[in-house]
Amino acid sequence: MAYNLKEVVNKKIRFTSGHRMCAGCGAPPAVKTILLAVKPEDEVVVTSATGCLEVSSCIYPYTSWKDASFIHSAFENAGATCSGVEAAYNALKRKGKISKTTKFIAFGGDGGTYDIGLQSLSGAMERGHDMVYVCYDNGAYMNTGTQRSSATPHYADTTTAPAGKVVAGKAQQRKDLTEIMVKHNIPYVAQTAMYGNFKDIYEKAEKAIYTEGPAFLNTLAPCPRGWGYDPKDLILIEKLAVETCFWPLYEVVNGVYKVNYKPAKKLPVEEFLRPQKRFKHLFKEGNEWMIEEIQKEVDKKWEYLLAMEELTNKEG
Amino acid sequence: MSIKERLSGNEAVAYAMKQINPDVVPVYPITPSTEIPQYFSSFVANGTVDTEFVPVESEHSAMSAAIGASAAGARVMSATSSQGLALMYEMLYIASGMRLPIVLTCVNRAISAPINIHNDHSDSMGARDCGFIQLYCETNQEAYDNIIMAVKIAELAKLPVMVCYDGFITSHSVENIELLEDEKVKAFVGEYTPEHYLLNPDEHVSMGPLDLQNYFFEHRKQLADAMTNAKEIIAKVSKEFGDISGRYYDAFESYKLDDAEYGLVVLNSTAGTAKTVVDKLRDKGIKVGLLKPRMFRPMPHKELAESLKHLEAVAVMDKADSVNAMSGPVYTELVTALHKHDVHIPVSNYIYGLGGRDVKATDIEKVFRDILAAKDNKENLNGTFYLGVRE
Q: Where do the domains of chain A lie, and which CATH numbers do they carry?
């Protein structure tokens, strides 16, 4: 059935308004859309790592998780916690104590996923639990005030890798977590963003949720405070990330790559960088080399993906 | 009819777990508890249990998965030792704070550094304030019995339980043991019916919220109350267990203590050695006795004070050091208990056996002789000594 935004938004909403996430944050619409992909007749248990999403969505005695059960236990262990819930489901189902189909989705920010939670995530994926892990990647520790993480883009200004007189922001490139997850040989890995009327993220969520076994979704989740853009520009920022190929939309199904969107005219990466305060220093005279370097990195990854697409489809 | 067997402590615990048939066992190997997941995974592989066995990638994830599974409504058990318990530390507090009845076996082993695989109690003593009920075991029989009782205690108290016994000494030594029939264990532990759980088809729940100034303190007080209330629950479950097994357990075991003049307080396997020393000294007409705590959390402070108040002096043996320039953990807590109930007798502290240093009957006899001789030297009586250490 062809994607229809109007129909999708009228499905069962499991993440309600009233949460305390910032205006212009990419995480809540991503989470809401992903949960819309759960069939209305199915149950879902959401696990969250400590982070913006958790502390803003479930403040005692309130919760934004509706028609869903929710658990948070700690920061670095959403993968393991969710795997425990899934194991309980298998055991209780086998013993005939529960009958409904339940889906398991874990959410973590990039700090809780790329960094402190990487081991827990890797373990859960390797063990083959039937769950989806979603990283909402905003490229820094936003909950504690924009400290650098291994997902922070090269040269971005953060509060622990600030752009100073002798150091130009974060000195390292981003860790490529999506590729690390591909190498776990799990059935479904995808990188997504809120692009094209939410079609990309919705369809990937649906595939991830209804693929048997572990699945990983890496979704871009811009942060107006940490990135320095006007909250109303959230969707524009996502679009620029995709159109510049800074954040390619692709999926890997049982090892076979598919690049879901290939811009007819790839925009220069500075189009994505310019509207963001965290890259302001890149546009000072004499710093052009940083933008050039980022462009090279973006191009290299893009070429890699196209080559992998060709290679893995040929093999298949 | 009970079954007479010869099992190691770890075998006995794995056997009890087989009989309990928990829903989920997330576990990670670490010496000297490793045999538990080994034995248990063979039960899983052979279909003698229908447990979901989750061989996680770390102890942190073991306790995290245990929390997820328990919150989801499953009966959950795990096992660890030493560094493994230390790595779980963060999650231990979360298990109790979320009021999840997880049963964890802690096969006691020294904590690094330096690294050492042998027995002392620095692992579980380091976790004494994490909100777990702690039960300590002298023998394989006690380990087996306490594990079975722990399931019921945890679920009634809505608190996690840690069952502790000595690495290698108890975990790997084979002793005669009496096992209960499978049906008896099954009937004793019954079905787990949680009140609120993630997979409840009739309600949705949110667990683990951000809990701010307005509520956090009340929730922690509820946890404190649960621990206080656990005393009665443990007594009740222990009585029920006694009725089916013939083995009755109290908060602590008193050995020839009633008419004693001098007493020794010691946990776990060393209590066995200490009993022979008590017998030997008694044969010589010296009135000594022993108190072996089973329940360390909750602390049976009133009962302890009541049982020790008639003594001339007490020695507390600690197989862990608090590194606080004062005393070991059991000593600190025992003295607090005595003071709380207005019992003012001399109490000395012996740190012993760290890293598995052998403790012989002669060492324990020395402790008794010390407190007997120190009658006229009260200063010595309240001291802290490192038993048998080379200076």
A: 5-315 (3.40.50.970)
User: Distance between CA B276 and CA A229 in Å, rounded?
Assistant: 76
pLDDT band (50, 70, 90) for residue A273: very high
The yes-or-no verdict on residue B380 having pLDDT over 90 is no
Tens of pLDDT, residues B66-109: 999 999 999 999 999 999 999 999 999 999 999 999 999 999 99
pTM beyond cutoff 0.80: yes
Residue B67 to residue A81, Cβ atoms within 8 A: yes
ipTM for this prediction? 0.97
pLDDT score of B359 more than 90: yes
Strands (E), chain A: 43-48, 69-72, 102-109, 132-137, 188-192, 215-220, 250-253, 256-259
Q: Which CATH superfamily is domain B3-245 in?
A: Thiamin diphosphate (ThDP)-binding fold, Pyr/PP domains (3.40.50.970)
Q: Which residue of A has its CA nearest to B92?
A: A73
Which of B76, B204, B213 should we substitute to test contact with A (largest number of A Cβ atoms within 10 Å)?
B204
Confirm if A68 and A55 have CB atoms less than 8 A apart.
no
HSE-up (13 A, CA, CB side) for residue A100: 17
What are the residue ranges spanned by the domains of chain B?
A: 3-245, 252-386
Contacts of residue A198, Cβ cutoff 8 Å, sequence gap at least 6: A5, A8, A29, A33
From B129's Cα to the closest Cα of chain A, the distance in A is 19
Q: Which of residues 65-104 of A touch B (CB under 8 A)?
A: 65-74, 76-77, 79-92, 94-95, 97-100, 102
Question: For position B376, what pLDDT does the model report?
Answer: 75
CA distance B192 to B100: 12
Q: Of the CATH numbers 3.30.499.10, 3.40.50.300, 3.30.420.250, 3.40.50.920, which one belongs to the domain with range B252-386?
A: 3.40.50.920
Q: How many CB atoms lie within 10 A of CB A144?
A: 12
How much is the pLDDT for B375? 74
